[in-house]
Design brief:
two-stranded antiparallel sheet, six-stranded mixed sheet, alpha+beta, 2 domains
């Protein structure tokens, strides 16, 4: 009986392979040609480190039938996950955050993570390398933006804030995505044929064997569909991570090489500004801690007064003692 159950599973596997073999071989050849051509042209795809947008269809079948004749044909139909990480300075903290949230909503995106630290404006931190002083307010925001509107959103960030650093990455997951789709299709065919075998099965052991295999297939299909949905979400909605810092002076961006005299004059001015900022911070710190200084002075004054009183009393007792001894010496004489 066990041999018969094993035979049924082998039969279903053979039927599945025979049903997928012919179409799979031709598709594999097309995929191989597509990948070889795409890999040869990938270096020509980038423009200033950012991939240009494709206008062709998004289905991978379309990509398989297309010819590699430029940027669009290379990118069309490929599954690309785009991410960007930016550090931004701003003088208008609240206004910038409101503008970015409004812009994301208008583009069909949303803020996946939104953390704002208001901090304290009294404890400023010196921003090393410039004469600026940063306040404590900062934000960490993760935006999800439709892939076709990412460049527009990045442009909004550059217009509204001072971009200190920017890092972008685009990951091609076409191979993984196609493998998942192919595996899913194979499991679907096997599932259908096992369902047909289950309807015809008469033996209880055969039915249990088929049910066990169907349960395993359902589990695999659910796992594959979750992975595909995750890929779809990352592909269709790019991830933009922002670190926003509020400052009182923006970090300058040098676009041209400075002459020796310009560097000297700039360094001299920066030094004067640093000295002035240091004096201002010292004055602010002095005013802030002045109550503690006054309290410490009062305590110290009281301590000194008590100490002086104690010393005076001790000296008086010593003087009286000496006078008493002197009188006793006179009496003895």
């Amino acid at each position: 009986m066990k041999k018969k159950g094993i035979g049924i599973l082998l039969l279903s596997a053979i039927l599945c392979l025979s049903g997928c073999g012919d179409s799979g071989s031709s598709k594999s050849e097309a995929m191989a040609i597509r990948y070889d051509n795409a890999d040869m042209a990938m270096e020509e795809v980038q423009t200033d480190g950012i991939y240009t947008e494709a206008v062709a269809g998004n289905s991978y079948d379309t990509a398989l039938n297309s010819t590699v004749d430029g940027t669009e044909s290379v990118r069309s139909g490929r599954k690309l996950i785009r991410t960007a990480n930016l550090t931004v300075e701003t003088l208008e903290f609240d206004e910038l955050l409101d503008n970015l949230k409004t812009k994301a909503d208008s583009l069909g995106g949303y803020a996946e993570t939104y953390n704002v630290n208001n901090g304290s404006n009294y404890n400023s931190t010196y921003y090393s390398g410039t004469s600026a002083y940063r306040k404590n307010r900062n934000a960490y925001i993760v935006f999800r933006i439709p892939k076709t509107r990412v460049d527009e959103f990045l442009g909004e960030i550059a217009d509204k804030g001072n971009v200190v650093s920017r890092n972008e990455q685009e990951t091609d997951v076409t191979t993984e995505y196609v493998d998942l789709e192919s595996h899913k299709a194979t499991l679907k065919i096997e599932q259908e044929r096992l369902m047909a075998l289950l309807e015809e099965a008469q033996d209880l052991e055969d039915m249990l064997t088929i049910e066990s295999r169907l349960s395993d297939i359902r589990y695999q299909l659910e796992s594959i569909e979750r992975s595909i949905r995750s890929y779809d979400s990352q592909i269709e909605y790019s991830t933009i991570t922002l670190n926003v810092n509020e400052v009182v002076e923006l970090t300058p961006v040098d676009v041209e090489e400075e002459s020796t005299w310009e560097r000297i004059s700039k360094g001299f001015v920066d030094s004067l500004e640093n000295i002035w900022d240091g004096l201002v911070e010292f004055f602010i710190l002095f005013v802030v801690v002045l109550p503690y200084i006054v309290l410490a002075a009062i305590i110290l004054g009281l301590f000194i007064l008590i100490l002086v009183l104690i010393v005076k009393q001790s000296l008086k007792r010593q003087k009286r003692k000496m006078e008493k001894l002197a009188k006793e010496e006179e009496v003895k004489k």
